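Changelog-adjacent note: as of this version, every example in the card shows the full chain rather than a window. The one below runs 1145 residues end to end.
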Amino acid sequence: MSQYRILNGNELIIQGALEAGFNLYTGYPGSPLADYFNILYKKKKEFHDKGIRVVIANSEANAAAMASGVKQAGRDCIVAMKSMGLHVASDALSVGNFANPARPQFIDGKEVYPATVICVGDDPWSMSTSTAADSRYLFKHLHMSFLEPSNPKELKDWIAKAKEISSKTSLYQGLLLTTFLAEGGGRVECFDEAPVEAGLIDIDPSTFDLQKNVMVPPNSLLADVSMIKERFPKLQSVLKEMALDQVFGKSSADIGFISSGVIFETLKQCLEEGEYLDHFSLYKVASSFPLVDDFLVPYLKGLKKLVVVEEKRGFLEGEIRSLCQKHGLTLDIVGKDFKDTEGFPAFGGLSYEIISEKLEALKDYLEIGQCKSLAFEERNFGEILPKRLPTFCPGCPHRETLSLLKDLRRWLKAQDIDLITHGDVGCYSLSFLPPFGEMHNLSAMGQGGALGAGMDLFTKNPSVVLMGDSTFFHSGLTDISNSVQADHDITYILLDNDNTAMTGHQMTPASQVNVEGSKRPKQDMLNIVQNLGVKVAKEVNPSDRYFYQNLMREFVVQKGVKVIISNKECSLTYQAKVRAKERTQIKQKGTLGEKTFYQINTSACEDCRVCIEETGCPGLTQVMDAYGTKMAIDPTICVADSYCTKMKACPSFEKVVVKGYHPTMYRDSDLSHLTYDLKEFETKKTFDAIASGDTWRMVVTGVGGSGITTISKIIANACVEMAGRNDLDFKFMDQKGLAQRNGNVTGHMSICHKDKSMGAVTPRGGSDVLLSPDLLDGIGQLGFLKTENAVAIFDDSYQVPLSILLDKGESEESLTRAKLIEKVRSKGDDRIILVPLKKWCDLFFGKAVYASSMILGYAFQLGLVPFGEEDLLGALKKSMKPAEVENNIASFKLGREMASLGTEAFETKYKNLVIKSKDPLDLAIESIKASLLPWHNSNYILNKFREHLDQAIVDINWMGRKDLIQLIHDQYIFNRGKETTEFISGARAIGTIVNEDNRVLATRVLAKTFIVKDEVMVAHLMLSPFLKQMEEGIYSFLGKSYTKERINRPSFDIFGKKVEFDISPKDWQLKIMRHFRLLRSLLPAWHEKEREISSKVRNFLFNGIQKIEVKNNQYHALKLLDNIKGYREVRYTNAQRVFKELEIN
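Full-length structure tokens:
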């Protein structure tokens, strides 16, 4: 019985294999076939019951060798790997393919051999691969034919075809797909699974033909002769029998196009839309090697010109030229070269846009002018936006190692020693990116140590090699053996996180479980390296920063081979367990006993950026106050691993423990009593319109891990039934690249008539709908949206990327949310709708992640989605864990309501959920009152504060009231406002000196020179009513109560000695300390450097800045001064750098 299902590329391979019938599934995980083993692991019981075996081999070479053994045992095997894995496996594949160990069965008088199918995922655009490999050349080198499916249906069905080819020829058979097919998918008809012969058999070794089995001379020469003269020639007849090649278009045309694989679909889409197929023919090659002469030669004889369209180098073009030469055909062929211009590029992949552009360039060559122009229109944002680089996940243990490598580099540099760090393939390959830059090279998987050893032979520099646990078992342990044997001075850091994390958390030989779910003994890396002869080896918890720091420094200067094993579970798998445990506890007990959060006291924060520069954690974000940007913690991303707090560079980090935690119980948002105000609407593009030829396309984009693929999953599940229609086709592609988390993810979905061709990726300017719960990512992908009759819906906020957090803004102002919104609105692009989705999801559910369902509801209410509500809600239920269904349905309906009422009316209806804040002036007065002692004349001081504020509002009118309240409040907290009159007059004077655009920045710089955040002032800031209001607004809605632990390391200069210690001060201690202004007189050297820095800055503002006439240069100088931030040594170092550049003595 058949049924329609929506499957992605990896699922299609497995479904095709089940329908074909294989005994062993093996290989090695690697993008774009990363999910292959995750899917198999979920099916482990089903496979076990059927007698099917699954093995994640330690390497692709192991998998290839296993395939040979399976064949000798008379069973069928399918192997999956990425393009670089084919390189690793090539030796074993070559030997196994030349050998012919199996005895054939005779079925209907024909020989049938055990089948071996090798599925390889290429990555033409190099989105997740270290080398731009083209596996077609290696397949040919290995004497392996390969099928090239172009769409999801073929990918599934051709697994059986590949098996049939292998069984009829006795050869290994390849199947080649690329990223867009592997990470994409579509709606396919699935059929019953083929029975598989289960159980063990006895083999009689006396029946083996050793001449065919053992590839050593002279057997290898005989195998070569057999391959060339007997076995490989069979392929032509088998491929001919299958007749997988197809011809489209005008069969009598004397000009033709030829292509293969996934790019064929995009080419055909271009030719259909441009009406080229009314004039030309199009040949679809099922296998570029070998070509089927009996099909292709007759086709080529009818042509005078041929256009070859293929990705990467001209493999197909070369095969066709050889075929023409062999058969004496003379026709004009273009492909990679268009005579006078460059043809289809040999680097990267191809796209709708590239093919369209090249077809336009071929108009004269094609001798026609009547085809439609494929020139596409695109209205993008028109400005360069900050990049969202992929980075390590929040809580990632690799970040802890890299932070200390950065520290180690500084420590060695102070001794005039430069550290060299060697990389390898895994999550930690991202360590070359900011803020770490701790990877100076990269070799093949498992060869980073050998690369480092090669450099070590000829350099004095100490070397550190980063190697993952999976990489260690893949081939990395041979590097360590190699280093021991050669007596290298090198330090290996083995990053043991219990997972093959980069490719989706497959198990390793150290995981104590295999992919079939069986418990296995732990293969202990420490014991292994010690048995290799490593004398200096230690296992550490990377979270123990100070022990790990000292160990690194000790090891790196020692002679010989040293190994550190950093042992901490991958944050993603660990946090998944934590969340599951929390859900269970909440279900059983109603609440959690307690839950830990971390926060940054932005009043105490100096925005020195040490926390982000030393950790690169995406859980850190940015907020604004009177002094400009400040660091903060994004509670929707932070996993409370606390590593950012261990820098101890400032007193602003605080640990908050919420008692009786529940994400929504304490909020006034009972979902069961919600009534939704919804209006009738009309669907913009119906299924009937789509079936008539008007393709529907949606693009969703955002940050990895924020629910982007959830939207794709809902639409995909809705397409299973397709409202009862069978005349439509659905395709999708989730473009992830390196971004497991925190990089950009873009999903493409399209529905068209099933007879139309449709590339996996939406053409630029081709989407009807563009959705993004992240403003920055949405704007960045605006070019996908149609120029007319299309809608983009974006949340009005964004997750601040590392590129912004690390940017000190010294050349130009860094982007902020307010500036981006202003830019968007100034464009006057009526396609764009900005809505506060995450804000309201947080208010209703305590989690912003529900914005993905809310934005889909918003789009649905605008008539932008062709499905009915019943279809979408049914699909939503299938797409979610049961515990998440209610909230996601509610968020979907709230999205509908926001679109129906309009944002203003929606916010008015639910205004009771918005936390009411006190006026900043009332908070400032409350704060100043608390800073006074009983004998102080509070009325006089508060009246003086009000007078100063009123004067500032008049004299410093380029700054807002709220910001002026904070600046003057801080001066009163510091020294009762003794110098505030001078500050106001100084700011007024500065306003006449600097350019109008720089007045706010100059005022901020000046204001900072009137305070020193010493231990006395910070003690008050830790008790500030401003901070209390922020905490009440967050934690009072999360639990019954909460407690705080302040993470502080005060420093005092006492009798010429610096005294520092860790302390978590209590409220009563802080209340005492904030009154100890006397310490400033008793300890004159205390914070003397800060006062000197402030004096120099203030002097430059009044006597130096006016000499800088050019506006941009003035901004640069002011921003340099503004970046004199931080506490103690951080501030001193920043000041030294700035003063040197500005020549301030």
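Structural remarks: DSSP finds 45 helices and 35 strands in the chain.
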